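[step 3/7] inverse_fold.run input=structure_tokens len=101
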């Protein structure tokens, strides 16, 4: 399902969408009202923001108070990811990398 969502986002946004004069290439588009959790992993551990009954909680410690506006800002940031340009496959020589003689 994830790869289908990415494919749909790329198909639906590529070509013709511009922001501040730059072409926008959609990488991922998820309707924010369908997101139920945001999970972040770091060397120090994992944090999971869980959304239920109209509010956010920390899944690892539900009694911990979260700033709703910060959680919503993260949701906005990750629900639509765009790229500035699409990378094209190029031969290694184009970057100055040549096999030693």
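[step 3/7] decode complete -> sequence:
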């Amino acid at each position: 399902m994830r790869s289908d969502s990415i494919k749909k986002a790329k198909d639906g946004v590529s070509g013709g969408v511009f922001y501040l004069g730059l072409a926008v290439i959609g990488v991922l588009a998820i309707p924010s009202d369908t997101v139920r959790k945001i999970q972040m992993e770091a060397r120090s551990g994992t944090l999971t923001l869980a959304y239920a009954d109209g509010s956010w909680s920390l899944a690892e410690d539900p009694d911990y108070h979260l700033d709703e506006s910060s959680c919503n800002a993260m949701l906005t940031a990750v629900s639509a990811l765009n790229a500035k340009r699409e990378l094209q496959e190029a031969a290694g020589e184009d970057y100055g990398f040549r096999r030693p003689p």
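[step 4/7] annotate
DSSP finds two helices and seven strands in the chain.
The helical segments are 2-13, 68-79.
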